UniProtKB/TrEMBL annotation:
The keyword Signal applies. GO terms for cellular component: cell outer membrane. Residues 352-634 form the RagB/SusD domain. This is RagB/SusD family nutrient uptake outer membrane protein. It comes from Chitinophaga solisilvae. Its main location: membrane. Pfam families: SusD-like_3 (PF14322), SusD_RagB (PF07980). Keywords: Cell outer membrane, Membrane, Signal. It is found in: Cell outer membrane. Residues 82-238 form the SusD-like N-terminal domain.
Length: 634
């Protein structure tokens, strides 16, 4: 599919041009009717334009449209690919091939037919014209206006996270704007953050006068739209990011400035940013609780399941169950939410069936398997009771070994791990629970889950179980995938953001409380108990630096395969250390236990700091607008 390429200057110049069509919501405008006037002539047409603003949301549930799935180190795949993809962009980013001539996943100019500047322009058009709708009730106008203000903030946020300091487009430029007015400047980081959070504050209001609902009551028509809780939660994420090392006291970008001399990064560390983030996180948590949002716990209803399966489904269905109690904001774009993600992730489960639609290619590398805790709730290299030195030696599973087929041989790394490991990841010898039964993953060469041809297999030997809904069923000729709204924000994520901000502001008790809520749901002992009784560093959690390390690993585990790690590694400034580590998997071309369970080098990724923290602006955009400066290193 050819990508839309429209430069920012052109977008600004065309600020009042005709309405951008949305093939899902907008009807063809009758002849001789001015487009904008028609779009706001009545309530029905204005609502269509509201949905047009929503249509610019990037499709974050799609593995080829969200860089956080395949553009980092959480998943790897075979290469080159000639089938089974929409875009190769994220895979090229992961392999270190980003460039300035035709940047990959270029949401600045247009990617997947979405330019976020165009989305911002659509929001501005809505805000400029909503007062012209004659039959719109005041409460509807207030709510729709708040939604579009939030979307406008979110599009700025999405660009900010990718590009760092960006231009702020608060109002569309008129068609009479001079060439010099069109040549906009990037704004300093702090200014952009303040603008985004101010827009969200305007949208969310306060408890008494918010135009946004606290929760969606019309589940048949409005699920996926913005609530006050969602707005506050995204504000919390923005402020935690702004307080993090990438943006707070970072000298790497001290020389990045506009051609008028304006510095774009404040290199002075400001502890107050963490306090603002902590307050925002707590406000969002309180609003979520008041609206009935709570951690998800699996209720099998008519099914009888083991305690271990119940815990596993606590974890999996916190992501995959439709509109569950933990979801704060779910994305339903394109009508097939999480469909492609599930088909990319799910291997062949049944030895008696084969379905070409199950790709099984979204493959976690070995480093992700090593990330999860032992069953005692501490890192594998810290647990004094777990045999770290012999983790790559073969063992035979017994009936007592959770998550592994009895009598199967696999490496010690897969034994005695925490429940989130078995809920998130599958491997040769793993079990896979679905509503219609238990399946055994056997993925050595020519086995039903393994490699049989040049495609449809895991290059590492691991599979991303976490994102596959347990209602998926298939046979040789058909596949039935239960769609679910992709969690752009869930309560567990918000708890971890608050824990991080609490630790940074000297409130470790609050941090531990919210971490332990998530650990309890996952069947993992509290931080204090686990480290005191099992870690070779028993007092680690008692220091700010030690607890920071624990929080970061806790976040990497709890949010694994949900599109968080890619951005977290950047904002923490740990990407150079982590993303330059070699990618390893198992020898999937082997048919016996000994040869298959041999570690194999797959690729050596390349993350160049500080260059790769941000996307480059395309070279031609800089030629069109000389006031735009390129990001450092590009």
């Amino acid at each position: 599919m050819k990508q839309l390429t429209v430069c920012l200057s052109c977008l600004l110049y065309l600020a009042c041009s005709c309405l951008v069509a949305c093939n899902k919501y907008l009807d063809i405008v009758p002849d001789n009717v001015p487009t904008i006037d028609h779009a706001f002539s009545n309530r029905l047409e204005a609502e269509k334009y509201l949905f047009t603003c929503y249509s610019y949301l990037p499709q974050d549930d799609h593995p080829d449209k969200n860089p956080a799935f395949s553009g980092g180190d959480e998943a790897w795949t075979y290469w080159p690919m000639t089938e089974d993809f929409f875009f190769l962009d994220p895979y090229n980013i992961a392999r270190g091939n980003q460039n300035v001539a035709q940047p990959y996943m270029n949401y600045w100019d247009g990617y997947d037919n979405k330019s976020l500047w165009q989305g911002i322009r659509a929001c501005n058009i809505f805000l400029e014209n909503v007062n012209n709708v004659r039959d719109l009730q005041p409460y509807e106008k207030a709510r729709w206006t708040a939604e579009v203000r939030f979307l406008k903030a979110y599009f700025h946020w999405y660009l900010f996270r990718m590009y760092g300091p960006i231009p702020v487009v608060d109002k569309n430029l008129p068609v009479t704007a001079t060439p010099e007015e069109i040549k906009v400047y990037r704004q300093p980081v702090d200014s952009v953050v303040n603008y985004i959070t101010r827009l969200i504050d305007d949208a969310a209001g306060n408890t008494d006068n918010s135009a946004l609902p606290d929760k969606i009551t019309s589940s048949t028509t409005e699920l996926g739209r913005i609530t006050r809780v969602a707005a506050l939660a995204i504000k919390a994420r923005v402020l935690v990011t702004a307080a993090s090392p990438l943006f707070n006291g970072n000298n790497d970008f001290g020389g990045l400035k506009n051609n008028n001399g304006q510095l774009l990064f404040n290199t002075q560390y400001d502890a107050g940013k963490w306090e603002k983030a902590r307050i925002a996180c707590k406000q969002a948590i309180d609003a979520a609780h008041a609206a009935g949002v709570k951690l998800y716990y699996f209720n099998p209803a008519v099914l009888t399941v083991t305690p271990a399966t119940r815990v596993e489904m606590n974890i999996r269905n916190a992501v995959c169950e439709k509109w569950n109690s933990e979801l704060i904001w779910g994305q339903t774009s394109a009508g097939l939410p999480a469909y492609w993600l599930q088909t990319y992730a799910c291997p062949q489960l049944d030895p008696n069936m084969f379905n070409m639609n199950l790709k099984g290619k979204l493959a976690p590398p070995l480093k992700m398997a090593e990330l999860f805790y032992t069953r005692n709730g501490v890192p594998i290299e810290e647990d004094r009771t777990w045999d770290y030195a012999r983790r790559f030696q073969l063992r035979t599973a017994t009936v007592k070994d959770t998550g592994i087929q009895e009598g199967y041989r696999t490496i010690g790394l897969h034994f005695e791990r925490e429940p989130r490991f078995y809920a998130d990841v599958a491997f040769d010898g793993a079990t896979w629970f679905m509503r219609n039964g238990n399946y055994n993953i056997q993925s050595k060469l020519e086995q039903h889950s393994g490699k049989k041809q040049s495609r449809l297999y895991s290059i590492t030997g691991y599979y991303t179980k976490k994102v596959v809904n347990w209602n998926l069923v298939y046979n040789n000729t058909s596949l039935d995938v239960e769609y679910y709204p992709w969690p752009l924000m869930r309560l567990g994520d918000l708890y971890l953001l608050y824990a991080e901000a609490s630790n940074e502001t000297g409130n470790p008790a609050d941090a531990l409380h919210y971490i332990n809520l998530l650990r309890a749901r996952a069947g993992v002992p509290s931080v204090e108990y686990a480290w005191s009784n099992y870690s070779v560093k028993p007092s680690k959690y008692a220091t700010k630096e030690g607890l920071r390390e624990i929080i970061r690993q806790e976040r990497a585990i709890e949010m694994a395969f949900e599109g968080s790690r890619f951005w977290d590694l950047r904002r923490w400034k740990t990407a150079p250390q982590v993303l330059n580590m070699p990618v390893f998997g198992w020898d999937i071309l082997q048919a016996n236990y000994e040869d298959y369970n041999r570690r194999v080098f797959l690729y050596s990724p390349r993350f160049v700091a500080p260059r790769d923290y941000f996307w480059p602006v395309r070279e031609t955009d800089l030629q069109v607008n000389p006031n735009l400066v390129q990001n450092t290193g590009w």
